[in-house]
């Protein structure tokens, strides 16, 4: 019955964050009629939603932006090394305005299902506003860490104060002045927001399940000289980023941490600590693969925590014992220092687990904490969560969730496509390098590969592209083997799905590096899309 209202498009793209916006730009250049669906009422993706106090990016701003347009790159100036969320959102709005993207983005609309129709070779897409649209190409730019995880704790409904999740923060400023606030979670979002909330709240109680390593960001304003230097080296920077392991200008160090004498090591680590950000993580070439070396860095940071935090008992609770850098590495601004404030206290909920949320606060196994407001900095259902929220079905009506065993058997070819789902592309999908690098860089590579592919299909009159099951099997196996050779898979993290109760464990990320990945993708394309079936329908 809905057929008569069906709109026909060449391409439908989900999400108007970094991925979807650039995808739209490229597809329009190719002359494809394209519609982007976006659940929010503005562009920005995660930068639209994550408005919590202290939210900022951990990749340096001059790399954390698009590089495809030299003009755009040069006319935008970042205020500082790690700008806050409002500035990043302002940048993305600027991009939307500059390239007049908004007319092709439909806001406040969430796609609920996308089914591939074998007969017409078109994707049939439905939205929560009752719209029906068909498209030849279906492209997801839904993000890898965008579906909030609010833990299922008994009694949340009964809480009489206000509660928030960092990933869905209200637009109007939340005022914690005079309030007793509880923050649950100490990942990047918790560690960024805790120092800011502490400045405002009457009292802040942090509920920590796993302590984290964190290194000072050492944020600073950019000078005009620095920004001029960056602009003057635009082409060189773009090239360096493309060839690098993590989509940034610098690479991992060239030697093993074990090759250095203890004195030399301390000097390197101290220098990294002083420069801040991810310098320590990148100082040597084997921190993520070498258990002994990893522990040397871990111990260096543990010492810093003990030096910074005045109360030895609190310092002990804050000291991690797992591998460094195998949960997403965190950078902070005065995080550990915050525990020296009189109005901040730390509760170890591994020792005394949260039992329930009451009308007044949180009750753990040994105490009740009275709270006026509660902040969940409890992260996301990463990698697959946002894809599984949509009923995506390929050939023979098989759903993506079914095919991937609810996340237990993620299978892709190049992290961009999956067999049985023709003409569907995933931007920063599972088994791509995505979250292990500077996202805008990895996104540009994905978007450019997909748009080049679509251009090739159109020029050669190909109607259907689909990953071969064999190529997919090999890619997934390759990803798993690489991951298993690192310490990543030995740590509980959102990378592995361990943060979501009941979620299958895996490590659906390509760890071979962004530059090498780009080369593999380019080679596949240059061999006429090796590993794909290209079909022309008469
Ligand atoms: P993360 O990094 O997944 O951190 C979530 C935190 O919340 C982490 O400390 C978790 O402890 C904790 N958590 C999760 N569920 C619970 C429950 N039920 N009880 C207590 N504590 C809990 O999310 P973020 O938002 O900080 O960062 C996500 C990414 O966004 C980040 O890595 C960047 O890439 C950008 P756990 O460690 O699981 O024991």
Automatic annotation (TrEMBL):
Protein's recorded name: NAD(P)/FAD-dependent oxidoreductase
GO MF assignments: flavin adenine dinucleotide binding; N,N-dimethylaniline monooxygenase activity; NADP binding
Keywords: FAD, Flavoprotein, Monooxygenase, NADP, Oxidoreductase
Pfam families: FMO-like
Gene3D superfamilies documented for this protein: FAD/NAD(P)-binding domain
SUPFAM superfamilies cross-referenced by the UniProt entry: FAD/NAD(P)-binding domain (SSF51905)
Cofactor(s) annotated in UniProt: FAD
Stated family: Belongs to the FAD-binding monooxygenase family.
Domain of life: Bacteria
The organism of origin for this protein: Salibacterium salarium
Entry keyword annotation includes Flavoprotein: yes
Stored InterPro entries: FAD-binding_Monooxygenases, FAD/NAD-bd_sf, Flavin_mOase-like
